[in-house]
Amino acid sequence: MPFMIVSAIVAVLVAILAVQNSMMVDLTLFMWSFQLNLVLVVLLSVICGLLLGIVWGLTVKTRSMWQTRKLNEQIALLEDDKRILRDKVEQLMKAQGGVMDPADTTTTPTAEAAAKPASAAGPLNAFMKR
């Protein structure tokens, strides 16, 4: 409803502009010369500006959508890599006797692994303690 009210007001203002500025004006573009109604010149200028704005807006929107899609693909690849690496870490921890919570990056070594010195427990445990 508000859009219709604003559209009606703009239409009335354009009609008033057309009635008050119905004189002919001379336009020259390079070697061509035209005589047009002043209102037509203004309206054509507004239409050209709107078209340029729409084209520019579409290019910005398209570029943004393209970049968002590429970033989402990259996020998906990184999440896959993260899952694969987490699985590898879990396998290594199980092989060394450590227990790892999938949501936690810290390790909880078993009593047997805790009794061993860091160098004897393996390089992964030594790395994880840093």
Fold topology:
Blueprint: H1 2-20, E1 24-29, E2 32-37, H2 38-96, E3 98-100, E4 107-109, H3 111-115, H4 118-121, H5 123-129
Antiparallel strand pairs: 1-2, 3-4
Which overall shape is indicated by the principal axes computed on the Cα atoms?
elongated
* Biggest β-sheet description: 2 strands, antiparallel
Query: In angstroms, what is the radius of gyration?
Result: 35 Å
Global mean pLDDT:
79
Order of helices and strands: HEEHEEHHH
Strand order of the largest sheet: 1-2
How many individual helices?
A: 5
Low-confidence stretches: none
The percent range for helix content is over 70%
Summing up helix and strand content along with how strands pair, one would put the structural category as: alpha+beta
Q: What would your notes on this structure say?
A:
The mean pLDDT is 79. It contains five helices and four strands; from the N terminus they run αββαββααα. It is elongated. The chain has a domain at 40-96. It has helices spanning 2-20, 38-96, 111-115, 118-121, 123-129, and strands at residues 24-29, 32-37, 98-100, 107-109. The protein is an alpha+beta fold and 130 residues long.
What would the keywords be for this entry?
72% helix; 130 residues; two-stranded antiparallel ribbon; 5 helices; alpha+beta; 14% strand; single chain
